[in-house]
Amino acid sequence: MIVVVSCKLYPNSPPVAENGVLDLSNWDFNNSGNIELNGEWYFIWMEDNIDLFTSDNEIMNWEIVTLPTSWREINKPEIGYCWLKLKVILPPLMGLGIYLADSYSAGMVYVNGEQILQSGEPGNTRELTIPKGIPILNYIPNSEIIDISWKISNFHGRDGGPKEVLEIGLITKLNNNMQQNAIIDAIILGIL
Predict the structure, then answer these.
(1) What is the pTM of this model?
(2) Contacts of 78 (CB under 8 A, 6+ apart)
(3) What is the domain range of residue 150?
(4) What is the mean pLDDT of the chain?
(5) Average pLDDT estimate for 91-119
(6) What's the CATH code of the domain at 100?
(7) Which residues of 123-144 are buried (b: 16+ CB within 10 A; e: fewer)?
């Protein structure tokens, strides 16, 4: 039997988002690696309009939730959809990417108002939602401040919500991790 263990070692605790802001300006992506976007995100439930993903959208009526979580853990129904928002302050570094792990929900991610990731078809009803559980990654704009808006839609699974968080890092390291995870999954499936 093969047992694979994955762990991340950090000299210091990685920063987490507070009140919808994650300050990574002092994070060393070369030496400390990728970082999961854990912590307090702005959250709005079952509302959808074009203004929700723009970076200058007001967040006065939004709640704060701590990711990762499931909708059940924040007293929401298992099915539905939401928007999440987070401002990230980055060091002046080129070649960063954002990664969305495989999920049982559908989702799309906007950075600075531009859609850069989509997994499945996130809709507002069961008929309009198509979940697709594949990991995806893309470059993020070279900017020291980015606004992330993330729509998650779940009408097919038992427990929706952002149980896996987005991850930011050097695109090469994110891609290597994604390929390693695919190999591990293939090995595990081969054992079963």
Answers:
(1) 0.84
(2) 71, 72, 154, 157, 158, 159, 160
(3) 21-187
(4) 85
(5) 90
(6) 2.60.120.260
(7) beeeeebebbeebbbbebeeee
